[in-house]
Design a protein that fits this description.
The complex is a heterodimer of chains A (about 270) and B (about 425). Chain A is of the alpha/beta class and about 270 residues long. Helix content of chain A is about 35%, strand content about 10%. Chain B is globular and about 65 Å long. In chain B, strand 4 and strand 5 form a beta hairpin. At the A-B interface, helix 1, helix 2, helix 3, helix 5 and helix 9 of A face helix 1, helix 4, helix 5 and helix 6 of B.
Chain lengths: ~270, ~425
C-alpha cells in the first residue's frame, strides 16, 4: 500500500534510561526496516545511524525512563519538537524495573553502589515519560515487539490512533488453548491482571506470567493477591509479584504496597 | 604545524547518552596529556534492587540489564545461583544452554557488524544508507541476525528478554519438530557465514600494534558457559578468585566502573576469546581462520570485527552440531532447593566475560549481588587504544579525521554505548 500523500513523515527514536531492548523492535525488523526507511524520514535514531536529537518530527518514539536531571530536561525538548509522542516499553510508560528504587531511599542506594555518588547524575526516582510531559500514545511491553511498533507507525501515518490492546493475558491463553498455569499448576500467574500483546508467551512455556506488559483494563489485583495467598505465598511474596517490572504504575504499585509490610493490607 | 601547540579536543557523545557521555582529550606538544572516555549512562542500580528478591526472580530481572545480550545475564546468573544451591543442571541443560547462547552471539555480532561497525569502514552514516549500495551484504547480515533471534526464541519464546531460562535449566524443552526445522535453516546459513567471514577479512583495516593482555574463559570447548578465567599473560584463575587479581574502581568521569587485571587495562570480547582460545575452534571455523590470514594472537584491536564474523560461523556450527539427534527430556530442569550460600557466575557475553556473585539466605532471597559487565572491563583498554590511535595518526590531523578515528576505535569494542558513538560532536580548541 502506498504511503499517505504529502511530505514524507519525519520520525525520531529517542533513548532514555533503558536496556535498549525496545529499540530492537525496530532493529530486528530486517527487510521491514529497510522498507520503513523508504516510507519515512528517520531523522534521529542513534543506534541505526541517523543522529539529529533536536530535529522537529511528526512522531517521536521514546524508550526509557527519566532517571537523571539531564533526562528530566531533555524530555522537555523532545516533547516540544514532536507533533506526536509515543512511548515504547515499560521504562517509558511506567518508569521500568529501575523504578524499584522509588520504593526505597534512592540516594542511599546510589551510595551503596558507587563509592563516589557525587560524580553520578541520578535522580532519587525513576519515572515514566507521562509523569514528565504529555504523552499521546503508549505502547506497553518489556520489551515491545516489532508487530506493535509497525502497527503504530502504520496507524499514525494514516492519521488514526493506534489500536490499544488492553485485554488480559488470560483472554489470549484461552484463544490459544494454553493450559492455565494458575488453575492446573498452582503457579502465581499475573495473567489475570496483565495486558496482552506479548502472545501469552509465559503460560505457553508452562510458567507464570510476571506482568511485563503492564496492567490490563479493569484489573482486580486484590482478588488475585488473595488467590496467591491461598496458593501458599507469604504476604511479602505477593508484594514482590506486583512490584517488579511496573512497580511505579497503578494498580501494580498500589497492590504491591497493600501486601508489603508498609501497606494497610486488603 | 607547530610542535608546541596545545590541543583540547572535547567530544560530547550524543544520542544514546546525550550530554552524559563524552570523549575529552587534552594534548600538548603533540602528546596526549589527558584522555577520558566519559560514560554517563544513568545508573539503574540493579545490584541494589536485586537484594531482597527471590532466587527464581533473578533470571527475569537481570535480563533487563541489556536488551541486546539478555541471555548472557541470565546464564551468568543461573550459573551463580546453581553454585550457591549446589545444583547440577545436567548434560542436556548444559548443551542446550550453549545453543541458546549461540543464538545470542549470532544475533548480537550480526547486529554489530552490519548496523554499527561496517558503515565506518565503507564511509556511510549508517547501515540503512549502506543498504542502498550494498543490498546483498546488509540483507545477509539481517538474515543472520534474524536467525540468531529465532534460535533464542526457540528456547526463550522471544529474543529480547526471553522467558524460557530458569535456575536449574529451562521452563520448557523445545518441540523436536521445531528444532529440526530451525536446525535445517541454521545449516543452510553456514555458507552465508563463510561468505561473511571472507567479506570481513577483505576489508582494509587501520594498522595497529598495541600491547595488551587478552582475558577470556578457557575450558574444553570454545568458551561460552564454562571455563576458568585465563589470559594471554598465563593467568589461570577460578571464577571464585576473581577479586584476587581483578579490581574495579570508579573514576570521576564515568558511571561505568573501570576494571583492571593486576592494576593494568585488559581486553575482553571476541578478539580476546580468539587470542586465548584459537586452538578450541571447531575444524570448519579453524579452516576459515587459516584462510583469512589472521595471525593470532593479534595486537590489532580492529581485528575484532573479523573475530565476530568467525564467532558467528562458530556459533552456527556449534548449534547445528548440538541440535543433531535432539530429544526432549522428561523434565528440562533440575529440581532446585534453595539454601544459604554464595555462588559465582562467569560466562562469555558477546562483548566478553560477564562475572556475577550472589549471596543468598536459607529461603533463597538474595542478600548480596555484584555484577561486572564486559564494557566496564574494556573501558580502560578503550582509553589506551584511543591514546595510541590518535597519537599514531598525529594530533595535527583535521578535526573530522580525528573524530572519525575516535568513533571507529570506540565502536570497534562494541561497547554498550556503541550506538551513542555514532555521533561525536567534535570541538578542537587550539592554542
Amino acid at each position: 500500500m502506498a504511503p499517505a500523500p504529502g511530505p514524507r513523515p519525519r520520525i525520531a527514536v529517542h533513548k532514555f534510561s533503558s536496556c535498549d531492548g525496545c529499540q530492537l523492535a525496530f532493529l530486528d525488523l530486517g527487510e521491514d526496516l529497510i522498507r520503513l526507511y523508504e516510507l519515512v524520514d528517520i531523522v534521529h535514531f542513534a543506534e541505526a545511524g541517523p543522529v539529529d536529537p533536536e530535529a522537529e518530527v511528526d512522531i517521536a518514539f521514546v524508550e526509557g525512563s527519566v532517571s537523571s536531571a539531564d533526562e528530566a530536561e531533555r524530555i522537555q525538548r523532545v516533547r516540544a519538537n514532536a507533533r506526536v509522542l509515543v512511548t515504547i516499553g515499560a521504562c517509558a510508560t511506567s518508569g521500568g524495573i529501575q523504578a524499584l528504587r522509588n520504593l526505597h531511599d534512592g540516594e542511599q542506594w546510589l551510595a551503596d553502589v558507587y563509592p563516589s555518588p557525587e560524580f553520578v547524575d541520578s535522580l532519587a526516582c525513576s519515572t515514566g515519560i507521562a509523569e514528565n510531559v504529555a504523552v499521546d500514545y503508549e505502547l506497553w511491553g518489556c520489551p515491545v515487539n516489532g508487530r506493535q511498533v509497525l502497527a503504530a507507525v502504520r496507524a499514525l501515518l494514516w492519521g488514526v490512533p493506534p489500536v490499544e490492546e488492553a485485554d488480559k493475558v488470560c483472554m489470549e491463553c484461552k484463544r490459544d488453548g494454553n493450559v492455565c498455569v494458575l488453575v492446573s499448576l498452582g503457579q502465581p500467574c499475573l495473567g489475570p491482571v496483565t495486558r496482552t500483546g506479548c502472545g501469552a508467551l509465559c503460560p505457553a512455556f508452562g510458567r507464570d506470567c510476571y506482568g511485563c506488559y503492564g496492567p490490563a483494563e479493569n484489573p482486580n489485583p486484590d482478588a488475585l493477591g488473595r488467590r496467591f495467598e491461598g496458593l501458599g505465598l507469604l504476604r511479602e511474596d505477593v508484594a514482590r509479584r506486583f512490584r517488579f517490572i511496573h512497580s511505579n504504575r497503578a494498580p501494580m504499585g498500589e497492590a504491591g504496597a497493600r501486601w508489603a509490610d508498609d501497606g494497610d493490607g486488603p | 604545524m607547530s610542535d608546541d601547540r596545545r590541543v583540547d579536543i572535547n567530544v560530547p557523545v550524543l544520542a544514546r547518552v546525550e550530554g552524559e557521555g563524552a570523549l575529552r582529550v587534552t594534548a600538548e606538544d603533540g602528546r596526549i596529556t589527558d584522555l577520558q572516555l566519559r560514560i554517563y549512562e544513568p545508573p539503574r542500580l540493579f545490584e541494589r534492587f536485586l537484594v531482597g528478591r527471590a532466587w527464581h526472580e533473578v533470571p527475569d530481572a537481570v535480563a533487563r540489564i541489556c536488551g541486546i545480550c539478555p541471555v548472557a545475564y541470565q546464564m551468568s546468573a543461573v550459573q551463580a545461583l546453581e553454585q550457591a544451591f549446589g545444583v547440577d543442571p545436567g548434560d542436556w541443560v548444559r548443551a542446550m544452554r550453549r545453543v541458546f547462547y549461540c543464538g545470542e552471539w549470532i544475533q548480537s555480532h550480526a547486529l554489530h557488524i552490519h548496523l554499527l561497525a561496517a558503515p565506518d569502514f565503507f564511509g556511510y552514516a549508517g547501515a540503512l544508507d549502506m543498504a542502498a549500495d550494498y543490498p546483498d551484504e546488509v540483507r545477509r547480515g539481517m538474515r543472520l541476525q534474524a536467525l540468531g533471534n529465532e534460535l533464542m526464541a526457540l528456547f526463550g519464546a522471544r529474543a529480547v528478554h526471553p522467558v524460557g531460562a530458569r535456575v536449574g535449566g529451562f521452563h520448557r524443552a523445545p518441540l523436536a519438530t521445531a528444532v529440526a526445522e530451525l536446525r535445517g535453516r541454521l545449516e543452510a546459513a553456514l555458507p552465508e557465514a563463510e561468505a561473511l567471514v571472507r567479506w570481513c577479512a577483505a576489508i582494509g583495516l587501520p594498522e595497529a600494534a598495541q600491547d595488551f593482555p587478552s582475558v577470556a574463559l578457557r575450558g574444553a570447548d570454545y568458551p561460552m558457559n564454562a571455563g576458568r578465567i585465563a589470559a594471554t599473560t598465563g593467568l589461570d584463575l577460578d571464577k571464585a578468585d576473581w577479586d584476587s587479581r581483578f579490581a574495579e574502581e570508579q573514576s570521576p568521569h564515568s558511571t561505568a566502573f573501570h576494571a583492571r587485571l593486576d592494576g593494568a587495562p585488559y581486553l575482553v570480547g571476541p578478539l580476546a576469546r580468539l587470542n586465548v582460545n584459537a586452538d578450541r575452534l571447531p575444524a570448519e571455523t579453524a579452516a576459515l581462520l587459516a584462510e583469512s590470514g589472521l595471525a593470532l594472537p593479534s595486537a590489532n584491536p580492529f581485528h575484532s570485527m573479523l573475530a565476530r564474523a568467525l564467532e558467528i560461523h562458530l556459533a552456527l556450527t556449534e548449534a547445528v552440531r548440538l541440535l543433531a539427534d535432539y530429544a526432549a527430556p522428561d523434565r528440562p530442569f533440575a529440581e532446585v532447593t534453595p539454601r544459604a550460600g554464595t555462588g559465582f557466575g562467569a560466562t562469555e557475553a558477546p562483548r566478553g566475560v560477564l562475572w556475577h556473585r550472589y549471596e543468598t539466605d536459607e529461603r533463597g532471597l538474595l542478600t548480596a549481588s555484584r555484577i561486572v559487565p564486559p564494557t566496564a572491563q574494556n573501558q580502560a583498554r578503550i582509553e589506551d587504544d584511543l591514546r595510541q590511535a590518535l597519537e599514531g595518526r598525529g594530533l595535527d590531523a583535521p578535526d573530522d579525521e580525528l573524530r572519525r578515528l575516535g568513533e571507529q576505535v570506540i565502536r570497534n569494542y562494541d561497547p554498550c554505548i556503541s550506538c551513542a558513538t555514532h555521533f561525536l560532536d567534535l570541538t578542537v580548541e587550539r592554542r
